[in-house]
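Incident log, structure service

09:12 report received: a user says their structure output differs between two submissions of the same chain.
09:20 pulled the input from the user's history:
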Amino acid sequence: MSIPPPPGPYQPQEPQGPYPQGQYPPPPPPSPQGPYGQPAYGPYPPSPYQGWGQGYSPFNQPAPVNGLAIASLVLGVLCCLPAVGLVLGLIALGQIRKKGERGKAMAVIGSVLSSLGLALWVLVLATNGVSDFWDGFKEAARSSSPAKGECFNSASGLEGSTYDLDEVPCSGAHDGEVFAVVVLPDGDFPGDASVTDTAEDKCYKLRSAYAMDTWAVPEGVDVYYVVPSQETWNLGDREITCAFGNADSDAAMDGGSLRNDETTLDADQLAYLKAVNVQQAAAESVPADVPEDDLEANKKWAARIVSALAEETGLLRGRTWPADARKPVEAVAKEAEALQAPWAKAAVADDVDAFYLHYGEALELEDPGLSVTARKALGLATTPPAEEEGGTDGDVGGSGDGLEV
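09:34 re-ran on a clean worker, output below:
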């Protein structure tokens, strides 16, 4: 066996290199020094290439998200342009594979949602669903106003433009009460002025068919209307909504519904009001011009009143009234019969003075107390409306009922 050599410095074993034992090659020449004494380039010679420029980061940068994938996902969720969303999703998948971009999940989800949306649109078109939806939308626009007999509040008040009428109970405070709905014919929008003129004419005439007992309408109640605009007309709106409201448009109404017609009146009350309202309607057709400016128009008006008084007399005497109402109603009929004579003379007056003379005779013959007695016997309102210009209160001879447009 061999004995290992004693510990000591490392001794290279044979074979020896080109240098004698114990000698080593000379060290390499020193490298260029850096500013702090370190070699400028390490143990290797300088590289002929430049290092990293500005922006180098020791961490890997994430791949960008594909923009078309995002757009496909948004359109798929909104389902507004399903065909576009599907096409963008497919294009995005191709770009992601080629460029290594992110967003594959978004592109897939967008494509799936867009495909479902596209299938739904095809189904809707095949079953005429678009037409049904549009008809329903237009019907909602037409039915947004309260119906006859309903009370409402308006966020914008009773003047200017309104976009929403909220139905509320008539028993509480409310802005208005609908007494009529007028449906205009189809066709092109007739214009704001034409629609307004129609509303003024129709609503004013129809109010007494809803509130037949004009004496029961509180003083200060006015007539309002809601008309279609060009925009709502294009959506199918053809309705003029006529409503009672406070003359002070900022004040509410209360005290219950103003409706008194065949739905709330008994047969005798209804018959009496129908009779006296004939003359009332004729009296309200007074011309806009006074006799001095248009005598012929006022003479025609007087002739209409004569015809209305004759019809009223016939209606009052053509019915058998309850025992306690017979004499009071007959007294009203006699007055209506007597009033025909002065109004007939006014209808053929030769000049303005003669017209006023006979007009004054008719006013002197009127006795509101007769109407009060008859109404009390029938259970109707007994407080005459305030006197209006051009006529007096009472069931005969009056020219207005305190309502204005």
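09:41 both user submissions now match this output. Likely a transient worker issue. Closing.
09:42 reviewer note: The radius of gyration is 48 Å. The first strand starts at residue 151 and ends at 154.
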